[in-house]
């Protein structure tokens, strides 16, 4: 058995107090760290940071989360899942404090990076705690609430960020994040520790971690800065070439080290697990939709951050409602149907949002209703995908496997923001409306790609 409880600890079953602490931990990233997507114009007005650097900073949190989430999953298996959750919450407090104090690029970028490290610790550790301390339907219920914290928090982030920025100022977003992290620390206090009995035999793949981080940071830098540097300039090509070399080194050494590598590629021999990770990566790329929509509504139609955030309330309601519906669909039909239907519904919603040629009044109504469809799709997909990833992971590597799954979420979001922003900047000479339209259609296309991945890879199995 992989779970090793503390000596003398009586039998423990996950309860609602622990679940509340887990959900609040998840919200520190998905609700508050992600809310900056809707307040980019407001931050630009009060910070001595260029728009390109600010866009890089927005994606930096998700990027660092993706870079380190797998290693953190291994640490959670080896040193304790409760311990890594606590470390993640402490890092969240530190990162939020730096962002509250930031006036220039260095401190702001550092704060966003630390927020990403925080999420890297929290995501796999809390998923592993759910698998350890919850069983059967209680586990599926706990996963649903965990998903509510991540997907629901992401849906609420635009409205919360806009409301706080309009009424108190955007810096107060991070004060509320600190308060939530402190509450989570109190709620998980006293939870028995768990770890993998076999994980202690494995050492961290330092070389793999460094090459992985270099690869992702350089690739994100190329995508974010390539337009201003010139896509064919010597600097752009050098950064891209270095990223490719780092990627080749990571793959070659990873295959040679086997299960001792940072990412055990043998995990992807399970087609269901591969389908969950890859489709999750692609579907999370559509988070760029929120940023482009916010920019167009605020700069093209002169809405406030609060008014822009209110456009996503339909998304929030439907994603929260559909998460539990997705759980029931999983139990009745298996994962394949909701994991294919969800991305298609999301793609349709984004396609309607891309109709930037509409008049202001009609477009606002269209965006609100399309966000409802957006939420239906993501909520339908979320629980079946997460459950598929967790249940198809080896017991001894559930932390690492959960980390890889959440890496898909984080890197999908980071790359989605970076690519969408670069595409928008590239097409801006065509006009703001056209640039926003084509950038949004790109997001719709990657949602359809997520559905295709599920169709191809996920076995045709029915739930018992």
Automatic annotation (TrEMBL):
Q: Which UniProt keywords apply?
A: Cell membrane, Membrane, Transmembrane, Transmembrane helix, Transport
Kindly give the InterPro entries that the UniProt entry links to this protein.
MFS (IPR011701), MFS_dom (IPR020846), MFS_trans_sf (IPR036259)
Pinpoint the Major facilitator superfamily (MFS) profile domain residues: 18-462
User: Where in or outside the cell?
Assistant: Membrane
| UniProt superkingdom | Bacteria
Annotated Gene3D superfamilies: MFS general substrate transporter like domains, Multidrug resistance protein D
Topology relative to the membrane:
Multi-pass membrane protein
Kindly provide the name given to this protein in its UniProt entry.
MFS transporter
**Organism source for this protein?**
Leclercia barmai
């Amino acid at each position: 058995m992989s779970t090793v409880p503390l000596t003398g600890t009586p039998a423990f079953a996950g309860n609602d107090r622990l679940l509340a602490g887990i959900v609040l931990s998840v919200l520190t990233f998905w609700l508050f760290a992600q809310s900056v997507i809707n307040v980019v114009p407001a931050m630009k007005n009060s910070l001595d940071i260029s728009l390109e650097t600010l866009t890089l900073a927005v994606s930096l949190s998700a990027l660092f989360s993706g870079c380190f989430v797998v290693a953190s999953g291994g640490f959670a298996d080896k040193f304790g899942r409760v311990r890594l959750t606590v470390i993640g919450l402490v890092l969240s407090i530190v990162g939020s404090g730096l962002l509250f104090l930031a006036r220039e690029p260095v401190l702001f970028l550092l704060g966003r990076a630390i927020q990403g490290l925080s999420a890297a610790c929290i995501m796999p550790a809390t998923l592993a705690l759910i698998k350890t301390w919850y069983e059967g339907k209680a586990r599926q219920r706990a996963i649903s609430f965990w998903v509510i914290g991540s997907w629901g928090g992401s849906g609420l982030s635009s409205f919360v960020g806009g409301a706080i920025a309009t009424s108190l100022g955007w810096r107060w977003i991070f004060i509320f994040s600190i308060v939530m992290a402190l509450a989570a620390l109190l709620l998980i206090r006293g939870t028995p520790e768990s770890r993998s009995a076999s994980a202690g035999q494995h050492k961290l793949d330092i070389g793999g971690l460094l090459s992985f981080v270099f690869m992702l940071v350089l690739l994100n830098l190329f995508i974010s800065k390539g337009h201003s540097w010139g896509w064919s300039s010597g600097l752009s090509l050098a950064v891209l070439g270095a990223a490719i070399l780092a990627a080749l080194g990571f793959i070659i050494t990873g295959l040679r080290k086997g299960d001792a590598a940072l990412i055990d590629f043998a995990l992807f021999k399970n087609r269901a697990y591969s389908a969950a990770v890859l489709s999750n990566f692609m579907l999370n790329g559509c988070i760029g939709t929120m940023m482009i929509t916010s920019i167009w509504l605020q700069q093209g139609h002169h809405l406030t951050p609060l008014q822009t955030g209110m456009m996503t309330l339909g998304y929030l309601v439907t994603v929260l409602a559909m998460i539990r519906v997705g759980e029931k669909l999983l139990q009745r039909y298996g994962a394949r149907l909701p994991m294919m239907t969800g991305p298609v519904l999301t793609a349709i919603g984004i396609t309607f949002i891309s109709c930037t040629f509409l008049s202001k009044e009609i477009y606002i109504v269209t965006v609100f209703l399309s966000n409802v469809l957006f939420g239906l799709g993501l909520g339908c997909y979320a629980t079946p995908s997460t459950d598929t990833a967790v249940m198809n992971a080896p017991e001894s590597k559930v932390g690492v496997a959960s980390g890889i799954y959440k890496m898909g979420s984080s890197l999908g979001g980071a790359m989605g923001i970076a690519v969408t922003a670069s595409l928008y900047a590239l097409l801006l000479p065509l006009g703001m409306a056209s640039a926003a339209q084509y950038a949004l259609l790109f997001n719709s296309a990657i949602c359809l790609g997520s559905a295709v991945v599920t169709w191809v890879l996920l076995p045709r199995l029915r739930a018992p």
